[in-house]
Amino acid sequence: MNDIVFRSPKKRGRIAVVLSGRGSNFLAIHDAVGRGEVDAEIVLVLSNVETAPGLAAARERGLEALWLNPKDYASRDDYDAALLAEVRKRDVDLICLAGYMKIVTPLLCRAFVHRLLNIHPALLPAFPGLHVQQKAVDWGVRYSGATVHFVAEEVDMGPIILQAVVPVLQDDSADTLSARILEQEHKIYPEAVRLYFEGRIEVRGRRVFIL
Ligand code: GRF
Fold it and tell me: Which of 25, 145, 174, 186 could form a disulfide with 165 if both were Cys (CB 3.0 to 4.6 A apart)?
């Protein structure tokens, strides 16, 4: 049996959401927090894209919204160091990547081991990377879905926390499949965060146990 390597903390969590676009997963998490389902507070929404609708939505909801311009930093490491500094200033327990279109550096992964989550619109380890709903349609799989996972240094390969399965229909386009997957994303991402701060996520090796 693997030794227990990590058990998530039972506490009122402080979350930073990092996004590049629409922000519907961020909103789903914030809504769940608002309904009292997740014992946490979103203390920062950070983006690499100035015009990200998710950033505007965060401001509208009265949350701290911060744009870090990649052009201001000489390297990806410098960028992630700045991101880390912002997150640390606010005493963040958990970073939720939610549609963040930038690869995170090992620097960030190592600083936030087991404290960095991502959502991916496929059933990992199938279809890592980009445009995965189109790839699922093109490949002809019967099922796809969504995955919430810890972020490890290898892209899309960290321990899996939750997955939801959706059928791929014969007349699906990438758009119709994306919409069906997104509905599930909005359920399992808040759910994973809820379990996290209920102290119910245990990682042994690369397997995650829900307690
Ligand atoms: C989602 O499909 C998510 O799985 C992927 O990027 C998309 C982000 O959507 N990583 P949104 O910005 O949360 O609406």
Answer: 145
Q: pLDDT digits over 8-66, tens only?
A: 999 999 999 999 999 999 999 999 999 999 999 999 999 999 999 999 999 999 999 99
**β 116-120/94-97 pair status:** parallel
Q: Does domain 4-210 have CATH number 3.40.50.170?
A: yes
- 168 residue type, one letter: V
**Across the beta sheet with 6-7, what order do the strands follow?**
6-7, 201-204, 207-210
Closest ligand 1 atom, residue 181 Cα:
2
The answer to whether the CB of 120 is under 6 A from ligand 1 is: yes
Residue 116: its H or E element: strand 116-120
Residue ranges covered by each domain of the chain = 4-210
